[in-house]
Design a protein that fits this description.
By secondary structure, this protein is of the alpha+beta class. 30% of the residues lie in helices and 25% in strands. The protein has one domain: 60s Ribosomal Protein L30, Chain: A, CATH 3.30.1330.40.
Length: 157
Amino acid sequence: MPEIYEAKLIALGLELPPAPQPVANYVPTLISGDLLFISGQVSKDATGHVIAGHVGIACGGITVEQGAQAAKLCALNVLSQAKAALGSLDRIEQVLRLTGFVASHADFRDQPMVINGASDLMVAVLGDRGRHTRSAVGVASLPMGAAVEIDAIIKVR
């Protein structure tokens, strides 16, 4: 059976990175019934390079657009974890929730625009199954100095 969603990734010019390994005492994924919980995935590319820093030019940080690219990397890592846990992205029935954390200063207000990088990727790859609820939260810092971290809850079949 063809891997529909992986073919969609390829058509979009994207590739899933290897599923990142935990950096502390937790598991990357946990299945409970028909729900897949995915631990926070930071803005790390396939080579291990972390897009780091605070988002917001006013604070001397990275741009909102760079932050959205960091969120897109997080979403690719979420999908990579989903594939590792499920064997195939085609087992995804619905992305239920994304929680996005953006390293930013107190006066930064565009966290939703940053997390759109992840939301847009989920919809581009999974179509309506990628539509989800979400939160976009500003935080003082993230693990490894990452600019963005995203966790997910996915309904599976």
